[in-house]
Amino acid sequence: MNLSKRILIKISGESLMGNTSFGLDFKTLSYIANEIKEVVKEKHQICLIIGGGNIYRGNKGAAEGIDRSTSDYMGMLATVINALSMQSALEKINVPTRVQTAISMSQIAEPYIRRKAVRHLEKNRIVIFAAGTGNPFFTTDTAAALRASEMNCSMIIKATKVDGIYDKDPLMNKDAIFYDKISYIEALSKNLRVMDSTAISLAKESKIPIIINNLNVKNFILNAIRNVGKFSKIS
């Protein structure tokens, strides 16, 4: 198997809201599903991780007084809702998909088993990893780096609302500086917050490059794979 054809895509939960203020926008779900289908047509094997911020954020709940571990588990459940929604959107357009959860919930998804996930990928099924790492205090960014390492992915694509990495929020600061390429060490030392430090460190250890690009640009996944268009790369 050509492992260069295996990639992991990380999508924030907020991206699934579209123009709404909470929950799921089904037009956005359909758009992302069709973007993924175009990649599948080119025989790439796709791992997918979706955050849960459109429904619940563990750290925000903890700040409001909920026990941190409990709050993080609630956030993990939000990612399962998003994973099932994306599975439905993909299967609606005839893309075979499996959801695996880090927390056992056998009535609705498979438990995470590495060898089984690899087998799904080899059979050209999308695998959506839900419930983060299954542990509190770890983000879905860290889960993305962990699963990418376990699956021997050639890259991580993190799709966001901006077209790459800036030294400060480009939506709020017109003088924000854009980084097209940056090292893992620079990303950590500059504290750019594009991904949490644990995720970047793990990607560094596994030598997996991280691509940051704009989810709203047509062919945002294929562009990253083909090295075209505007995006940032951590390597």
Tell me what you see in this structure.
The protein has helices at 26-41, 58-63, 68-92, 114-122, 140-150, 184-189, 197-206, 220-226; strands at residues 6-11, 45-50, 97-101, 110-111, 126-130, 155-160, 165-166, 178-179, 181-182, 210-214, 232-234. The protein is α/β, with parallel strands linked by helices. It has one domain (3-234): 3-Layer(aba) Sandwich (Carbamate kinase). The longest helix is centred in the middle third of the chain and has 25 residues, at 68-92. It is globular and about 50 Å long. The chain starts with 5 loop residues before the first strand and ends with a strand.
Task: Produce the secondary structure layout.
Elements: E1 6-11, H1 26-41, E2 45-50, H2 58-63, H3 68-92, E3 97-101, E4 110-111, H4 114-122, E5 126-130, H5 140-150, E6 155-160, E7 165-166, E8 178-179, E9 181-182, H6 184-189, H7 197-206, E10 210-214, H8 220-226, E11 232-234
Parallel strand pairs: 1-2, 1-6, 2-5, 3-4, 3-5, 6-10, 9-11
Antiparallel strand pairs: 7-8, 10-11
- Poorly predicted regions: none
What is the CA-based Rg, rounded?
Answer: 17 Å
Q: Which strand order does the major sheet show?
A: 4-3-5-2-1-6-10-11-9
Shape: globular
Percent of residues in helices? 25-40%
> How is the biggest beta sheet arranged?
9 strands, mixed
Whole-number mean pLDDT: 94
SSE order, one letter for each helix or strand: EHEHHEEHEHEEEEHHEHE
